[in-house]
Amino acid sequence: MPGIQDWIHKLEVGEGVRYVKVTAMVLAYMVLAAIFDLRGYKAFSTQEAMDAAQLARNIADGKGYTTDFIRPISIHLLQKRRGEGATVLREPHPDLANPPVYPVVLAGLMKALPFHHGIPRSSTFWWHQPEIVIAIFNQLLFFAGVFLTFKIAQRLFDASVAWVSAVVMAGTNLFWRFSVSGLSTMLLLVILLGLIWCLVALEGAQRELEEGETLAESLEEEDDRVAPVGVRKPAWFLGVAVLAGVLLGLGGLTRYSFLWLTLPVLGFLLLFMGARRIQSSALVLTVALLIVTPWLVRNHQLSGNLFGTAGYATVQATNPFRGNRLERFLTNEFEQELGRVDSDVIFRKLMLNTAQIVEKDLPSFAGNWTSAFFLAGLLIPFQGRGLNRIRYFLLVSLGVFVLVQAMGKTYLSDEAPIVNSENMLVLLAPMVFVFGVAMYFTLLDQIDLPIPQLRTAITSFFCLLVCLPLVFAMLPPRRHPFAYPPYWPPGIQDVSHWMGESELMMSDMPWAVAWYGDRQCVWTTLSAPEGDKVTGKSDFFAINDFQRPINGLYLTTITTDARFYSEMLRDKDYDWGRFMVESMLRTNVPAGFPLKQAPDNMLRYGLLFLSDRVRWEESTR
Fold first, then answer.
1. What average pLDDT does this structure show over 87-99?
2. For residue 227, what pLDDT is reported?
3. Taking Cα atoms as reference points, which of 21, 156, 38 lies closest to residue 430?
4. How many CA atoms are closer than 13 Å to the CA of 130, on its beta-carbon side?
């Protein structure tokens, strides 16, 4: 039996030192997460987060891949596919906007853990329990990303670079903001780091094999028994290539734009895998296609587009489809407007957005100053071939993501300029940290320090400096966690629960109604009833009369906060703004509009709820 002295020896100088360091790292991260959640937590504030969460709840409840957030464009695409006149709202509505991996992962989380979607009625309301659970889950994914960054840095450089890279990443405020946003970024970050680990391992093993063969040839040794220790077997190469293909496919089904990373991945394998270049690249591509293809076929069968409504991201934010116009189209005018988008329009979008990314986003995309060391390090070549190869891959991926982000930019980036699912550059920040920290140590080694302890002090100051944004985010004053206006969960849930589970609403924030209220809700269409007498030609009636009755209309400050003259009065896309203003001024809705009942206490908050009957009194009985 080992004595107490043996245990102490292991903890001080033996293998126990590693476990002590890992335990300390885990505990430090847990403490940091707890402080951030208490001081800097922010509830869901984006359409994408609420959309993914409500979709996950439907999956967990056994409703299939169906959504309560109904976009008019998806109604149009389903009708077009099934034939004009088809009623598509009398059955669960299939989601055509979101790739499946993240909602399915959240659905598994909802099945495994208790989620309390009801909001308790109390004097104070500070957070929504399901959003807290999702945030903690994403913070666990964040920790997995920190760990993978540590392992990659340790493999490429040494323990010092690995530890500082992990500290820098864990102390980056931008990643903590993403961790509580409800977006799929943390999951995609782990997938990308896993994919990079596969590429690093494949390249390293292939290089060792080639170096071993060169050494054997120089010594004229042909016996396999003298092959260098550590050379991998063919089955290992196949296994890692399959894993890389799985990760590439899963990444593409987490965010469709991630599939563009196929180009630098295949280029890396074809250039640096020697005799295995064809085998490895073909295997990665085949496995990724096997994972992605069934879902793309499903989308095409439902909508005629491989990527559903997300396939139109390239044409969004162009002149014909400014703002959120595209997703609110209901009629065949969509195809007419789509025909106006030619190559000149696309090129203009590419150039304008790329210029903005290069000017504003690239200098700060990593979230701290470590990116400056990365950029400076580009002027210095590494002695190891493997390091230069991985850096080439990182630079090519960065260029690809710049173009992808420029082409895929939509109104979502305008509503949440940094923390949004269209921010692809942030995914490469961990590798930027690794190479930036390596450059920092290269510069530090050039300084002749009088005492060794100064090296630790300088490095500690460097870590503190890059982590300052996170420090300030957790200092007083404490910010309110909710993005109000327009999102106030108790109010949204109250209004939504005035409706029955089988009834349909229309709103200017259907994603919030779907998530907080658990009710089916159609996004307000481009056209609204107008004038003293409605004629029935509005898109509202195209749904109400021919698809499914709309029992409630919920308009919020999203509509009322529009500019009065340039948008409400002159822009046709703000028909509902005019409808709301006219209804408030006349204290009545146009004759012929089926929803005439409204509670008295909502107009002072800039809200309007119209229904077919007085429901709010019923809910208080």
1. 94
2. 46
3. 156
4. 25
Which range among 11-15, 270-274, 595-599 shows the weakest confidence by mean pLDDT?
11-15
Q: At what angle do helices 429-444 and 385-407 cross, to 10 degrees?
A: 140
pLDDT (tens digit per residue) in 372-403: 899 889 888 888 889 999 999 999 999 999 99
pLDDT at 226 exceeding the cut of 50: no
pLDDT at site 611: 93
For residue 484, how far is the Cα from the chain centroid?
Answer: 22
Q: Report how far residue 339's alpha carbon sits from residue 333's, in angstroms, rounded to the nearest whole number.
A: 10
Q: Is residue 580 predicted with pLDDT exceeding 90?
A: no
- Distance CA(156)–CA(268), nearest Å, equals 17
- 553's enclosing H/E stretch is strand 550-555
3 state DSSP class of 143: helix
Nearest Cα neighbor of 198 from 150, 146, 243 is: 243
Phi, psi of 582 (to 5 degrees): -65, -40
Instruction: Return mean pLDDT, the chain.
Output: 88
Contacts of 223 (CB under 8 A, 6+ apart): none
The domain spans of the chain are 4-38, 187-473, 489-620
The sheet carrying 504-507 orders its strands as 69-70, 521-523, 504-507, 550-555, 608-611
- Do 142 and 179 touch, CB atoms closer than 8 A? yes
Note the maximum CA span of the chain. 97
Using CB atoms within 10 A of its CB, is residue 509 exposed (0-12), middle (13-18) or buried (19+)?
Answer: buried
